[in-house]
User: Which sequence fits this backbone?
């Protein structure tokens, strides 16, 4: 299958969010100018993205919200469930465990892990916090290959080494560290600092 | 000034993170193959990015870590301080208030806001939580134009309207909603779902 660019994926999920909102409000149709207006991006860009889904709107009324939503879900494989562990049950780990609607996007967080005795056994959004030592056995038992890393910077590499030894193959990295992993492990950096700077450097944010 | 692409900004911050680590370990030089190896990206890409900083490494030894770090900081304007409020003192807001080293990147979070009486007055990483009603006055008093939005999905638009009325000009949106704002307000969507799907859709993450 042809690769979808990261920017297109990003926009499709934003359209999806708008469509969810429209459907909740019982609005049947949406037009590309309406989407363009909400996202402050160009109308032609939106039509180009939607053309990738082989979907054509109706003249004057636009796209059927429910149909377009399903097409985006198919394209981005929301039905293909990925199970993940959250590693680090601090505020960020807790926030992600509670994050609205991850499940709707095919993302199933099945458990959290931490090494603080104070946190073991508590439940966040019906997901239990286990001791990190239990991760290798549980990862194997439930065939979990994805870890969301939300530990403090200082522990990031050490915990990563442990995850790799435990059979984790994909790490969604929320720490500000660049992780050293073998070639067969993939890291996806959620680079908050980078995202913030993309915003400020190129969008003329005023100093103060 | 020529615009730096978002991808370049993203990579420069990752190089910066690696350099910080090298400097902490008292390693004086770093080579582009060493960076390439850690990030699993191509060496030529790294040299191209670093050429944008008008910096040339020394043959065989590479770049001086401290010099390269400063050049990245200048390019990405770490010295130009941006002050921001966090709006929503839930787990995510708390996590961002505690986030390692935002200050080092020129990002100063001066206060948090919430409407829960249980949270007003508590301090997170020396930053106080105020009632949302106090935001307009404090934003004007301290000339704060940036808000980091970490409220629940259900309140996102209502709080956004309030922020716009309070003079906020830039919103870093961590909610999964597309916010409706006037043209003079800029929203930067931290689209976690989109980022996750970029990872899974194009990187052949196995189902389970």
Assistant:
């Amino acid at each position: 299958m042809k690769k979808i660019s990261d920017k297109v994926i990003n926009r499709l999920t934003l359209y999806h969010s708008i469509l969810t909102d429209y459907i909740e409000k019982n609005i049947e149709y949406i037009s590309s100018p309406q989407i363009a207006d909400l996202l402050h991006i160009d109308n032609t860009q939106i039509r180009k993205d939607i053309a990738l889904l082989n979907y054509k709107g109706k003249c004057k009324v636009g796209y059927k919200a429910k149909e377009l939503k399903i097409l985006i879900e198919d394209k981005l494989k929301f039905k293909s469930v990925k199970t993940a562990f959250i590693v680090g049950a601090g505020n960020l780990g807790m926030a992600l465990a509670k994050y609205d609607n991850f499940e709707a996007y095919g993302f199933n967080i099945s458990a959290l892990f931490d090494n603080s005795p104070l946190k073991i056994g508590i439940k966040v959004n019906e997901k239990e916090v286990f001791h990190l030592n239990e991760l290798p056995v549980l990862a194997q038992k439930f065939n979990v290959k994805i870890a969301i890393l939300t530990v403090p910077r200082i522990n990031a590499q050490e915990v990563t080494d442990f995850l790799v030894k435990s059979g984790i193959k994909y790490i969604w990295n929320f720490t500000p560290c660049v992780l050293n992993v073998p070639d067969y492990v993939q890291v996806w950096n959620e680079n908050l600092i980078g995202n913030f700077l993309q915003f400020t450097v190129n969008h003329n944010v005023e100093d103060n």
